[in-house]
Amino acid sequence: MAITLTDLLDNPTLKLRALGSSTSTVGTPIEWVAVTEVENPQPFLSGSELVLTTGARLATADAQRVFVRQVKRAGAVGIGFGTGFGHDAVPAPLVAEANRWSIPIIEVPYQTPFIAVGKLVADALSAEHVAELEALLAGHQALAQSLLTANQTLGSGLPSLLATLQSMVGTDVVLEQFQAKVFSSLPDAEPNDDDWLPVPVPTGKRDSCTLWLRKPFRDAGIVDYAKSLISVELANQWQRRDDGRHVAGQVIHDVLRAALPAADISARLRGIQINPAEKNLILLVQVPDKKFALLSGIALPPALGAGITAVVDGEFLVVLPAAVGDPVQLARHLSRYLHGAGIPASVGVGGAYTQANGLRWSYFEAREAASRGLDVNEPERLSLTSLLLASEDVPMLDMATETLGPLLEFDELHGAELMNTLASYLQLNGSLAAVADDLSLHRNTVRYRLGQITELTGFDPAVTADRVQLWLALSVRKLN
Q1: For residue 293, what pLDDT is reported?
Q2: Domains of the chain, with CATH numbers?
């Protein structure tokens, strides 16, 4: 504990005596003892010192008054004047000037060495520093313990850690990551720079992770340690989610490719907490390649907590029980969350079905919907393309490759744009005028290209049966 002038005066071994009338700083902690014999000690003081002098250079009343004023301006807590050297008593002008400037004066008798006063102050400061370090270490231990030990109310992990931090700093705390609240001790809190202190938390991700502390608060170095623990825990959570999503992704990949017998597939789905006997649906998230790495470990909003997340072939899937709520609303919530996190995403919604086949149908529906590129893409009627792709017995991809392969090779060799022409022709319901306008071509050029398509593929886009074949091939290629 810091020592004060009152403590020094109460110490009988020092035999100090208070002079003058000022008691303004007798309870102020002394930060150091400065011994000086210069006439102007102000440049050598930083404030809160007890200034000790024998007055060797203070022979005149003017010098004594100047000395007091300079000590006052430096912010010292008091003056200790040693008698028995150059002065038998503390000079009256010095005491009067000290009363005028409200600075306490203490007489230090000849038998009391200045070093004895200095040692008492130094020992008190050292004890205070040790106590602060012990309190800091105890705080570190309490924070680490709260992170690792289960709490009956909050469990273990971040909520317990942040609740412990809240009690230590004596204020509300909010943790945000990807612009969303991970934890808040104050419901509906909206931190701002005026009333809250933002503390950036490094995670190695571009997630704008911030610990907010509402002003005022107590901090004896505990916040920096808490920030380090939060950073480590968020990194661990990220890695656990990433690992779990890749494991779940392998299972769902096998389901989509029908790589295992039905009984094995059902068992593996249950192993990742998906009940194939209930209706499940898929939300499929497509993002730019450079942003996909963020999806693998990002925490999802609590509204999607019932979902199983997976990474499959560069796509992010959320498998939800149909009973969890309106899938379109959940998709909108997910889309807003990802956009707020700086991840532009297109979310496709699949239908809700039972069994592994139903999960395949939902996946291809969601994938076909996401190809429209809107923020949220609702499922349309169950399409023929999705049904055929979901069936492991129909080699749709082989059919698409065989049908369109000649066009792809011809376009690569000659830059003929036959694939674009075919896609536009089918999209615009076979209207030559609309295709010519869409591609900025003459109608005769469109007719010529359609003739090339018929010659290369053996399918005439003007014939209904052939048009269906070409449309299916294009749809399959787009989805794969």
Answers
A1: 84
A2: 5-121 (3.40.1390.20), 154-220 (no CATH), 241-390 (3.30.70), 396-479 (1.10.10.2840)
